[in-house]
Amino acid sequence: MNTYLSLWDTISQRVASVRNIDNIPLSILGVQRSWTLEETQLVLRVLQIFILENILHEHRQKHGTLMEPLSGSKALDHKIFMKTNWTFNEIRSMSLEDKLLVLHDEIKVVSLSVEAQRFIAKQSLPDISIIFEDFQPKEWNHGENKVFLDLL
Q1: What's the mean pLDDT in 28-35?
Q2: Do the domain assignments include residue 152?
Q3: pLDDT attached to residue 26
Q4: Which residues, at least 6 apart from 30, have a Cβ–Cβ distance to it below 8 Å?
Q5: Quick check: is 45 in a domain?
Q6: What is the superkingdom listed in this entry's lineage (predicted)?
Q7: 148 neighbors 10 (Cβ within 8 angstroms)
């Protein structure tokens, strides 16, 4: 469980830094609270990246090899390729935001492992959807998150 918390906190800090948000909402397990607009946007983006990282981690475990472990964004591109049969040139030309839209039906809490779902269930999450209008590529840093994913 600490691995999930470390991953969550790392993603939170990165998104807050990219978005110039000073007040990072603390995860208080099981405590309902009020959310500001900015906090809601931040937490929902963190949740989106947290789920993305976990489903890509599972994809790497299933499809990665010694010769090609599908590191970083290669796992995202490979997952989209397997889902759509689009060429890698088409996939690589897409923005990160568009790639996430292709996987939209998979980027949800039920796609997580049981243990990761338990972690999310204990988080105090907003009950409304107010999201950032764009997805800044710097918000997702697989290299930084890999440290925690390797522990799962």
Answers
A1: 60
A2: no
A3: 66
A4: 122, 124
A5: yes
A6: Bacteria
A7: yes
Q: Can you tell me the distance from the alpha carbon of 152 to that of 150, in angstroms, rounded to the nearest whole number?
A: 6
Task: Give the sign of the dihedral formed by CA 110, CA 112, CA 118, CA 120.
Answer: negative
Fill in the amino acid letter for 96: L
Q: What are 90-96's contacts with CB under 8 Å, separation 24+?
A: 95/135, 95/137, 96/135, 96/137, 96/140
Total domains, the chain? 1
Alpha carbon of residue 135 to chain centroid: 12
Position 82 in a domain: yes
Judge whether 44 lies within some domain: yes
Domain boundaries, position 50: 2-146
Q: How far apart are CA 41 and CA 130, in angstroms?
A: 6
DSSP assignment of 56-67 equals HHHHHHHH--SS
pTM of the model: 0.90
What the block records as the tokens of 37 is 């607009």
Write the single-letter amino acid at 137.
P
Closest CA to 9 of 50, 48, 55, 53: 50
pLDDT digits (tens, 9 = 90+) for 77-94: 999 999 999 999 999 999
